[in-house]
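Input record (one chain):
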Amino acid sequence: MTHPGPLIAVIEDEEHLAQGLLFNLQAEGYRTHHEADGEAALHWLLEATSAASSGHPAAILLDVMLPGRDGFSIVSALRQSGCYTPVLMLTARGRSEDIVAGFAAGADDYLPKPFDLGVLMARLSAMLRRMHWQQAIPAAAPATTTKTNFTLAGHIIDLDALEIRPLRPQSSAAKTVHLTLMEAELLRYLLDHPGKVISRSELLENVWHVREDTDTRAIDNFIVRLRRYLEPNPAKPIHLLTIRAVGYRFLPEP
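The corresponding structure, as predicted from the sequence alone:
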C-alpha cells in the first residue's frame, strides 16, 4: 500500500506558476494545497497548523507579493502564533535586503524568481530532511555542555532542537522558546566567537551568506529577539552587547 506523501502548501497568486508548482510537486509524490490570496492563506495556515488539525502541512512555499497580505507578514504571524512549519519564500525581489528581511520575519530559506525547478525541489527536500532530524532529537536536555548545547543565564541553548529551555523548568516563569533556523544560526555564530567584536557585515556574510556591503539593519531585529529570549533585562543587556557603529559582542560571562 502506498502511503500519501507530505502535504506542501503553495501560496502563490501567479496562476501559471502555481499550477506548474502543483503539477511538479504532485509528480514527485507530494500532496498539495494552493492559496492565492494572502489573507485567505494565513487563515487556512493557522487552522491547518493548529493542534486540532490533521491536515498539517509539512512545508510552505510562500510568495512575497500577494493580494491581501504579503508573505513577510504571513510568516511573521505564523511564527508569533507558535507555528514553526518550514517556510521557503519565493519572490522576484532578490535584493540582499529582501532576503535578510525574509529571514528576519522567520523564513527558513529564500529563492528569488526566476528559479530552477531542480533547485527548488532540492531546497524543499533539505528543509523536510532537517525538520525530520530535529523531530528525532530526544527532548531531554543533556547533562553537560556539548558543541550544540550551551548553558547561559539560566537557559539551555539547544541548537540541534532549535530551542532555548529553562534550566529549572518547574519555575512558574519558565518557558521553552522555539528558534527559527536563522535565529539559531546567528546564535551559533555568536557562541562560537565569545568576546570578539563582530561587525554587521561579518554576520551578513557568514550567517546569511549575502554580500558584506549590504546596507541593512534588519539583523538588529534578530539581536533584539535573542536578547528577549536570553537576557535577564533585555533593555540592559549583559551578554549580547551592541558595539556602536560596528556590530556586536557576545559575553558568556559578563
